[in-house]
Amino acid sequence: MTARRLRWWLFAGVAIVSGLGLVVELAGPEALVQHLSLSYEGNVPTWFSSSLLLGCALAAGAIAERATRWRCHWWGMAGVLAYASMDEAAEIHEHLGGLVGTGGALYFDWVIFAAALLLVLAIAYLRFFWRGLPRATRWRLILGGAVYLAGAVGMELPLGWWTERAGNAGTTYAVLDWIEETLEMIGATLVLLALLRHREEAG
Asked: Which long-range contacts (CB under 8 A, 24 or more apart) does 134-140 make?
């Protein structure tokens, strides 16, 4: 199946998982909330998100295996995406919280470590993105990565601000978390499609 055809199936999956998650948050039934809500871990949305990221890692690895230039960068990308998939399933990043003790928008202080790591990766991959990728692939990956990070890191700021003041229960928290997780799924889907199209176009 080509990336263009797969696109519709992937976005349909995102729409179904995200839509069901919002419905159970707003209207129940309570028995389904922990299985379908995007605010919970170890459930269907978690599996779906982790699978998308694993697909990204496998696609990057397939490109790395055939690459004649920038192979280390492709393998590095595959490793980062594989770790992101594992982190999505195992909640590793949440154990970094509380080390700094900040509040407000930085209530979830692990975002400080994430921002520092992202800066290092951006510097390490700057030349690869601007010289090692076709223009179309570059901008597809930048778009997908930006959407993903807007959810994974960016939405943690308003979510942290709200959590410090009102806790992690209630409709507002659920909607903020839903936006975060939905952006992550859309971003991961865009990255996966960008990698698959790059592999197809590279021949």
From this structure: 134/198, 134/201, 136/197, 136/201, 137/194, 137/197, 137/198, 137/201, 140/190, 140/193, 140/194, 140/197, 140/198
Q: What share of the chain is helix, strand, coil (3-state, %, to 5)?
A: 85, 0, 15
User: Is the CB of residue 109 less than 8 Å from the CB of residue 94?
Assistant: no
**Per-residue tokens: 143:** 């778009």
Classify residue 198 by burial, with Cβ atoms within 10 Å: 0-12, 13-18, 19+: buried
Yes or no: say if 173 and 163 are a contact pair by the CB < 8 Å rule: yes
**What is the residue-averaged pLDDT of the chain?**
93
CA–CA dist 144, 186 (Å, integer): 8
Q: In this predicted structure, what is the pLDDT of residue 132?
A: 93
Q: What are the tokens at 138? A: 């570059």
Provide DSSP, 12-70: HHHHHHHHHHHHHHHH--HHHHHHH-TTSSSSHHHHHHHHHHHHHHHHHHHHHHH-SSS
pLDDT tens digits along 19-42: 999 999 888 788 899 999 998 888
Can you tell me which residue has the tokens 């990255």? 191
Ranges of each domain in the chain: 48-202
The length of the chain, given as a count of residues: 203
Whole-model pTM: value is: 0.94
